[in-house]
Amino acid sequence: MTGAGFAARAAELDAADPLAPLRDRFVLDGDVTAYFDGNSLGRPLRVTGEALAAFTAHDWGSRLIRSWDEQWVELPTVLGDRLGALLVGAAAGQTLVGDSTSVLLYKLARAAVDGAGGGRDEIVVSDDDFPTDRYLLEGIAAETGRTLRWIPTDPDGGVSVEQVAEAVGPRTALVVLSHVAYRSGYLADAAAITAVVHDAGALVCWDLCHSVGAVPVALDAWGADLAVGCTYKYLGGGPGSPAFAYVAARHHGVLRQPVQGWFGRSDPFAMAAGYVPAEGVRQFLSGTPPVLALVPLRVGLDLYAEAGIGAVRAKSEALTAFAVEIADAAGLEVASPRDPARRGGHVTLRHPDARAIVAELWRRGVVPDFRAPDGIRIGLAPLSTSFAEVASGLGALTRL
Q1: In CATH, 71-303 is 3.40.50.150
Q2: What phi, psi does 176 have (nearest 5°)?
């Protein structure tokens, strides 16, 4: 099919897309003609600015410190419960929002390792997982005298159930894996992997950064122990927006988080001597929550409540399939799973001149992501990306 043919096909797909009207809710101004980095930093919603202005005028400007008693103290768990119900399949009382992904991952992983029984001195991780995951676990292993057991991972794919089964055993304390691989978009079989880890007597922590808001997640149904994820990709929380953590209810009061800040105490405003952990998931809070930064997340979750994660996933699969079709027609090498059921919300293409190509595309208003050594990552945010955008952006790439 020619470029004109793909453009015509994109117009048909956009016309039939039930989520297409939601695209106009996003800020689409500027010189970018095709934005393929929504899985790194999502576009802001137009209402986000209004929400921040209203927050500044009323919640902060008018109510001032009274807002702590009126709403802010409970905000990390209120938003956590909403995110849990809408997007990650978590019953109330198990999810909170606050801190960065790195900080929350450290707290959960360290708590899991510290709580492991005798002889469990290994942490299992993929050797191609996102860098912060690997670096944090290296640090925890050094701090606690544990050993990292690396799962060798194909960068075009991801970690399989069989690989996990081979890696875990009586010495395993914790397994940390990404649900969607940041490089290839490979979608792990989380339910089966969780069962394998539990059969070995260990805990599992899922990194949901590249899956939340793009693919359905079912933490409770999987039997997951722990999970972390960010909100600045598909959820529109904005650059550096707070992350979220999930701790299954059965671990409350059992695992003890290592960063004992005042907001995780049973009664933070008592200012009392000694640290007494709060009940439930609140015990994994540490310092004062970033209230202002939670405003964009709140409006982002409103949009997901309207769209529904099922419809979002259906469009995500259609977008990535369309991208693969265009790439195949142009003879580009696809470095992501072919099966949509094993693919998250992005597609990676391989080219020896990837770095230079991405730089030139940015100059032309087409914004994909470069991933060393030779990857061009096409991140397609279902709520803000149109099929016409995919056709025009990849058309520009194929003409280079």
Answers
A1: no
A2: -120, 120
Please report how many Cα atoms fall inside a 13 Å half-sphere around the Cα of residue 274, on the Cβ side.
1
* 20 neighbors 11 (Cβ within 8 angstroms): no
State phi, psi for 203 to the nearest 5 degrees: -105, 155
Bridge-based pairing state of the strands 369-371 and 346-350:
unpaired
Single out the catalytic residue among 232, 246, 322, 387. 232
**Residue 377 designated active-site:** yes
pLDDT single digits (tens) 74-95 = 999 999 999 999 999 999 999 9
Task: Give the predicted TM-score (pTM) of the model.
Answer: 0.97
Q: Which fold has domain 3-46+308-398?
A: Aspartate Aminotransferase, domain 1 (3.90.1150)
Tell me if 3-46+308-398 shares its fold with 71-303: no
Count of helix runs (H) and strand runs (E) in the chain: 13, 13
Catalytic residue, candidates 23, 233, 265, 343: 233
14, 63, 114, 130: the active-site residue:
130
